[in-house]
Amino acid sequence: MNINWYPGHMKKAMESIMKNLALVDIAYEVIDSRIPRSSRNPEIDNILGGKPKIIIMNKSDLADEEANIIWRNYFQKQGYRAVIVDSTGNRGIDDIVKLSNRLVGKKTERSGSGGSENRSMRAIIIGIPNVGKSTLINNLSRRKGARTGNKPGITRANQWINVKGNLQLLDTPGILWPKFQDEEVGLNLAFTGAIKDEILDIENLALNLIDRIKNISKRYLQERYDIDIENKSPYEIIEIIGRKRGCLIQGGRVDLSRTSGIILDEYRKGLIGRITLELPEGRDVY
Ligand code: G4P
User: Which ligand 1 atom sits closest to the C-alpha of 270?
Assistant: First the structure.
């Protein structure tokens, strides 16, 4: 697999996260609800070292609603706090603020006169690329808007954003590298666009995606493309979709590459359906 993260990159990312973690009271680990396992870096808990954390199940609007609940319950059973969020559609944002207040409680700092005064709770957003970290920061910052000036001890690029509910958010997210535990994780990351189309050629990726979606439920492809997929191979399905969409090349053959691009794009936008690609261990249907 051709991956952009090298040990040097990881070390740098890690150092930056550690430095910023020291400044906050709570971390928000953003993941993609369509691939809650594959979009997590399994080392996150070691990295956080006991710092309070909320798992933000972002892009929930693109994932199956029942599967969202299954995953949230699963995380809760494991002792995590998890919130189902749609950062573009505004769902779950207030829950993050409320839960943070409950988890962190009041914070004080030394005042100029030597006493102590209440201060805002401080948070950082962390996650692998493309899970929606910036979108969530923008959404949270719209809630209040005001950015505060630099504070001592913070690199000049970092600023705090005041969010309602006595919360201050670091405007720079911590970027974690995706972890390719196995081939399936790599494929899931590629299907959702978390890594760009670099691990497989686009046609192979689309063939694999069609196969996965078909196994989850036949109705998604049938309804989106108005085709009968019974007894058809992924290759045949791509051909039919290509013909229907007029993706043809010389000689009337289907342009497989263009058709594959369309299918991947439509999955990523949720147009084929709200399809969650993986479930907690031991479950295979939702
Ligand atoms: P990052 O900082 O973690 O790298 O992610 P970013 O916010 O840039 O979001 C990546 C893409 O995901 C963006 O799409 C963004 O609009 C989309 N996105 C983020 N949160 C949600 C969500 O809750 N629901 C949905 N449906 N989409 C979300 P984009 O601008 O089209 O980027 P691209 O990936 O097409 O380049």
Answer: 26
